[in-house]
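Hi L.,

As promised, DUF1129 domain-containing protein:
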Amino acid sequence: MYLSEPALNLNVPDRCKPLWNEIIALSKINNMSQIEQIQYLQKYHALLVDESSLDLEKIEKMAKKEAKANRWRSTFWKEEFKDLFSFLFIYWVCVEQLYPYVIERLIEGKAPYTIVPFSLGMLVKVICVYLIYKLLLTFMAKSTKRDNWRFWLPFIVLFLGYLGTIFLSHQLNSVVLFDYPLVVVVVVFGLLFLWEWHRKDRV
């Protein structure tokens, strides 16, 4: 939902465009369903084109309040975490485990690891990278102007946050929480990944 464009193609007066873009972004980052998004956008489009009672500040407050109310619903969190298994499989399983413990070792002519540790550092890294990924999507949904330094500033901040996460995780890697068979994790999260993508295709 973060990067998908709304089904409606509505126009507003030029002075209302910044607020209209913000309203569209609110409908995305607050995980409205397609029907909810259409109703929400139609409502505020009608207010923005009504010159007789146009109050941008009041409309902005109303739009934010209504959009944020969606966060108290279970559908918001269901939508928010619908990509969790995909993230875990691609980042945690493939990037952080299969590559260093299997692929890299095979390239070096060594036997791959079958039992691998799960450390506190890895837990911190996975959580922080997922949060950074979500913040990046939120920023991309909100940002419309990409021709000035303000567009790149959040990217720089998030990248520095990622570097900080790597540093912190390295400090905590010595704290091993448990060991586990790698093949079990690959199979389980691979199946969850396929199930998640199959579910998306049906929606």
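The first helix runs from residue 17 to 29.

Thanks again for sending the construct details.

K.
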